[in-house]
Amino acid sequence: MKSTILPICPVFWSEDKVLLIDQTMLPHEYALVEITRYEDMAEAIKTMVVRGAPAIGIAAAYGMYLGARAIQTQQVDKFLIHLEIVAQKLRETRPTAVNLFWAISRMLRTAYKSVEPVEEIKKILLKTAQTIQAEDLQTCHKIGQFSLKALPNSPQKLTLLTHCNAGALATAGYGTALGVVRSAWTRGRLKRVYADETRPRFQGAKLTAWECVQEGIPVTVISDNMAAYCMKLGKIDAVVVGADRIAANGDTANKIGTYALAVAAKMHNIPFFVAAPLSTIDFNLENGDQIPVEERHPSEIYQMSETRLCPEGVDYYNPAFDIMPASLIDAFFTEKGVIKPNKLLRLKNS
Ligand code: MRU
C-alpha cells in the first residue's frame, strides 16, 4: 500500500473522459478506470467500482453526457429519444440511492429545456454534470459545518461511530457522515472515529479506514457485531451515518446494519445522526416502506476472495440496505442546517 497522500476524488473529468477511482481495489491498490462510454459507466455503477449515493449520482450525470456525446443525429427531438434510452440504462444500475435518479432527471430536464442545437446541448450537459459535482462538494462542507452545532457539546473530544463509507469516496470528495468526522477533526473536537467493518462488502474496513489513514484521523475498525458492546462500554459519544434515500416522514435507507446500530444507540441513549444532502430526500415517498431495497448476489455472503465460507445447500438473503424508522433518528445534518425528522417536509421545494 502506498504511503503518500492521494487525492480522494472518486469521479473526475479529464479532457475527454471520466476517471473513476476503482473502489473495488482499495485499500490495496489506488487504480483509476477510464470511462468513455455510458454503457461502461452503467457497468461501473452496478459493479460498485463507484459507489455511495452522491458519487453514484455524479457518475450517472457524466454517464448521461457520455451517452449524449455519442448520439449522432442533429435533430433535437430524435436526440432526446436517444437520451431517454441512455437515462433508462443508467437508472437500471442500482435501485436504492435516490441521488442516481435525481441526477439523471436533472440532466434530462436540462436537455429538454435547452433551445440550442444538439451540439450545444451536449456542451450544456457536460457543464451540468460538472456543476452537480461542484455543488456536492460545497454541500458536504456545509453539512460538516452545520453538524458542529449539533454534536454533543462536551469538554472532552468526541468519539464518533460510523457505518459503511459515507466519505470522500462516496461523494464529490469530502463526505457526508465522514465529512462530519473531518469537520470535527479539523476543529479539534474529535478524539477518534470507530468504523464498522460493514459486512458483506466491507466499505468501513476498506474505504472509511483508508480515508482516515490518508488524513491521519485516528480510526478504530470493529466488526459490525461489536458496535452495541462498544456503546455499552461508553466508548461512543454519537453515531453519524449517511443515507441512500430518505422518505418524506424521515424514514431512512442506508447500508445494511444501520438499523441495528440505530436500535442499539437508542437503547444506550446515544445520539444518532444522519448526514445527507437534500438530493437524498425523496419527497415522493411518504414513508420508508416505499423505498426499494437492492438485493445483491449471495456470493457477497458465502464467499470471501476465492474462499467459500458456507456449505453447499444453504439459502441466502442479501439485502444491501435497511430502513430506519424516523423515530430512531435524532436529527438530519443537511446543507440547509440541522433538521429534526418531523420538520423534514419544510425542506420541500427549498
Ligand atoms: O452500497 P454502497 O456502498 O453504495 O452503499 C453506500 C451507503 O450506504 C452510504 O452510507 C450512503 O450511500 C451514503 S454515502 C454519502
Describe the overall structure.
With 350 residues, the chain is α/β, with parallel strands linked by helices. It folds into 2 domains: 11-141, Up-down Bundle (Four Helix Bundle (Hemerythrin (Met), subunit A)); 152-347, Rossmann fold, CATH 3.40.50.10470. The protein is built from 10 helices and 16 strands. It has helices spanning 38-46, 53-70, 76-91, 98-113, 118-150, 177-186, 203-215, 227-232, 258-267, 299-302, and strands spanning 11-14, 17-21, 32-35, 158-162, 190-196, 219-222, 238-241, 245-247, 252-255, 272-275, 281-282, 303-304, 307-308, 321-324, 331-334, 337-339. It has a 7-stranded mixed sheet with strand order 6-5-4-7-10-15-16, with helices on both faces. A hairpin with a 4-residue loop joins β8 and β9 (252-255). The radius of gyration is 20 Å and the shape is globular. The model has no long low-confidence stretch (mean pLDDT 96). Bound molecules: 5-S-methyl-1-O-phosphono-5-thio-D-ribulose. 5-S-methyl-1-O-phosphono-5-thio-D-ribulose is lined by residues 51-54, 97, 164, 166, 170-171, 176, 203, 242-244, 254-255, 320. The site of 5-S-methyl-1-O-phosphono-5-thio-D-ribulose has 17 residues, from α2 and β9.
Mean pLDDT: 96
Helix-strand category: alpha/beta
Q: What is the helix tally?
A: 10
Helical content class:
25-40%
CATH fold title of the largest domain: Rossmann fold
> How many beta-strand elements?
16
- The stretches of 5 or more residues where confidence is low (pLDDT under 50) are none
Shape: globular
Strand content: 15-25%
Distance between the termini: 44 Å
**What's the CATH class of the largest domain, please?**
Alpha Beta
Order of helices and strands: EEEHHHHHEHEHEHEEEHEEHEEEEE
Q: In the residues, how many domains can be counted?
A: 2
CATH superfamily of the largest domain: Translation initiation factor eif-2b, domain 2
Strand order of the largest sheet: 6-5-4-7-10-15-16
Rg (C-alpha, Å): 20 Å
Which ligands does the model contain, each kind named once? Answer: 5-S-methyl-1-O-phosphono-5-thio-D-ribulose
CATH architectural arrangement of the largest domain = 3-Layer(aba) Sandwich
Query: Which sheet architecture does the biggest sheet show?
Result: 7 strands, mixed
